[in-house]
Design a protein that fits this description.
By secondary structure, this protein is of the alpha+beta class. It has nine helices and 32 strands. Helices cover 20% and strands 26% of the residues.
Length: 539
């Protein structure tokens, strides 16, 4: 039994759509001098100058499937040639050398110091195995690190949102304002890097059998500017030496090439590209994971990327999309303005490809949707364009892609024409149907589950929108860093969400939500894939 959502005119909200918006909490953030007072804050700040200056930390990313692992790192240019080599294996005395590619880093991003980025893929990984690795930096091997693979029978994934290292700028710590200056002077990055490490350490301690991490974007904060000290703080987290992260390009990551240098994403496509890169995908266990760069508003390209991924891994039991913008979220800053900018376009695409779950960020609040699918009606399409100098997006206006009309997301008081255009935009985005299912375990649903992750570092929080939307099943804003744990096998996808209190305790903030599948669901998925392929061919 399905229930059609009645389209209703939403209250016109004077909401500024900018990311450092006026509705970001000015009272709450994760103050690492408090949460870390007894757990390493002094040591961290004493070493911050060295941490902020080390741009050469290694990042690990899932490979094309669970048998591969991708590496990326910087090496400072010297008289010797770059050596993009990883030594990897089970025997520390006999590691196998894997060679990749290297290239020049744009020196305007690194204070005019010359660096090379190195990308390498290691193959032949087996489950439940302990490996060791080193990487070469101009011929010099790094210290040996340990990497453990886990079981594939039931895959456990850490899902986090918006670490956004540096976003606590403007907050007060010990009587001084945190600032986003360059290098070690970026005290906001110092605060947030410690908090990010604290969250990961807590999550790994609670879940030592994690297979990998999914980050829903905005790893760092400075948009379109040099920010290597923020990446240095992000990558310095201790857990990341032995845990791969499938990162998503957020709006704060989108406008520089530094993201593409630091993360070696598998199956990179030519679709959805910005300066940071584009859509990519990978297979892990029983899941197909598709990562969309929704800072590119060309939905046809995202559809093509999903088609490519489904064609590559047609037998996956689960199809999971990660993207930054939360087209179904519940935060005051974004959920009813720029967050839903691609809702009318992506909802039917996700329906066509039988996407089971969409993991989102951007809104710095936690929410879990009901099971949603499209309403089958025609709707307008919208996008954001860059501002005049190309340094950021024009967050103040949504552009109708057909007419070119620019819709003010925060109309001036008394501008009835602009207010009417915003109301029409919001009404047009009532483009979904809520599936009539009960309880926290659903079987073979038709709709898609949309999750929005709160800040994993606590660097910045937003208020919840005053009235909970009808498409939201649960939501939370307790001004604490949070994370979710996904447990997935061939028949079940379950998600649990937790927050970390100031004293380090871990608390659940939502009931476990589980999607179960039977054989009928798999057959339906295959039929949908065939239909999607036929439609793409026909076009």
């Amino acid at each position: 039994m399905k229930r059609k959502v009645v389209a209703a005119l939403m209250t016109v909200l004077a909401i500024a759509g900018t990311c450092p918006a006026v509705y970001a909490s000015t009272d709450h953030y994760n103050d690492s001098s408090v949460t870390g007072a007894e757990s390493g804050w002094s040591e961290w700040t004493a070493d911050w100058e060295n941490i902020a200056a080390d741009y050469t930390k290694v990042s690990l990313t899932p490979g094309a499937d669970e048998s591969e692992l991708n590496f990326a790192w910087y090496s400072e240019k010297t008289d010797s040639e770059a050596t993009p080599i990883v030594h990897f294996g089970t025997d520390q005395a006999a590691l196998e050398a894997f060679t990749g590619t290297s290239g020049d880093v744009d020196q305007t991003l690194t204070g005019d110091t010359a660096y090379t980025y190195n990308h390498v893929t290691v193959t032949g990984l087996e489950p439940d195995t302990t490996y060791f690795y080193t990487v070469e930096k101009n011929g010099e091997q790094s210290d040996v690190c340990e990497y453990k693979t886990q079981s594939l029978d039931s895959v456990k994934i850490l899902y986090v949102g918006d670490p956004q290292i540096g976003a606590s700028k403007g907050q007060t710590q010990n009587g001084a304002e945190l600032v986003p200056d360059d290098g070690a002077a970026n005290t906001a990055a110092c605060n947030d890097g410690f908090a990010w490490n604290r969250t990961l350490t807590t999550a790994v301690t609670e879940n030592p059998d994690l297979n990998f991490v999914i980050s829903a974007g905005d790893q760092v904060n400075k948009t379109g500017k040099p920010k290597e000290e923020e990446y240095a703080a992000y990558l310095n987290a201790e857990a990341l030496t032995g845990l791969s992260v499938a990162t998503t390009i957020g709006n704060h990551d989108s406008l520089n090439e530094d993201y593409a240098y630091h993360f070696n994403n598998p199956n990179a496509t030519e679709n959805g590209t910005t300066a940071a890169g584009g859509d990519y995908y990978y297979s892990y266990g029983d899941g197909l994971f598709i990562v969309l760069n929704t800072n590119n508003y060309n939905a046809a390209e995202h559809s093509a990327a999903i088609q490519e991924a489904v064609d590559a891994y047609p037998d996956a039991a689960w199809r999971i999309v990660t993207m930054h913008q939360d087209i179904y979220g519940s935060g005051l800053d974004h959920s009813d303005t720029d967050g839903m900018i691609l809702r009318t376009q992506l909802t039917p695409i996700f329906d066509t490809f039988n996407i089971d779950v969409v993991l989102q960020g951007h809104d710095h609040t936690y929410s879990r949707s009901k099971m949603l699918y499209g309403d089958g009606q025609e709707h307008q399409n919208y996008e954001f364009t860059l501002n005049e100098d190309g340094s950021d997006y024009d967050w103040d206006h949504a552009t109708n892609t057909a007419s070119g009309e620019k819709i003010a997301l925060a109309p001036e008081e008394g501008d009835e024409e602009a207010a009417s255009a915003l109301a029409a935009f919001q009404e047009d985005n009532q483009c979904y149907t809520i599936e009539d299912v009960e309880g926290n375990t659903v079987t073979n649903p038709e709709g898609t589950l949309y999750m929005t992750a709160n800040s994993a570092s606590g660097s910045k929080y937003y208020e919840l929108i005053s009235t909970q939307q009808d498409y939201i099943a649960a939501r939370s804003q307790n001004w604490l860093p949070s994370y979710s744990v996904i447990t997935m096998d061939a028949d079940s996808f379950a998600i649990d969400t937790y927050q970390i209190t100031d004293d380090g305790s871990v608390e659940s903030i939502d009931d476990t939500f589980t999607i179960e599948k039977t054989g009928a669901a798999s057959e339906s998925s295959e039929t949908a894939s065939d239909t999607a392929e036929s439609e793409t061919t026909a076009k």
